[in-house]
């Protein structure tokens, strides 16, 4: 994930050596995915 302040933040590649290897633990995720937009060949809603 990339922060809104891109000049002063880092994406997940910067955090690969962290405890979770650059990923977000499932219990820290808030919300649900509603659609797939990338890659374009997989565009669609998630039911």
Automatic annotation (TrEMBL):
Residues 1-19 have a biased composition (Basic and acidic residues). InterPro entries: LexA/Signal_pep-like_sf, Peptidase_S26. CDD domains: S26_SPase_I (cd06530). Residues 1-37 form the Peptidase S26 domain. Residues 1-22 are annotated as: Disordered. SUPFAM superfamilies: LexA/Signal peptidase. Gene3D superfamilies: Umud Fragment, subunit A. Transmembrane segments: none annotated. It comes from the Bacteria. This is Peptidase S26 domain-containing protein.
């Amino acid at each position: 994930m990339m922060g809104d302040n891109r000049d002063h933040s880092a994406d997940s590649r910067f955090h690969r050596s962290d405890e979770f290897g650059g990923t977000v633990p499932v219990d820290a995720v808030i919300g649900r995915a509603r659609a797939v937009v990338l890659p374009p060949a997989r565009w669609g809603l998630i039911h």
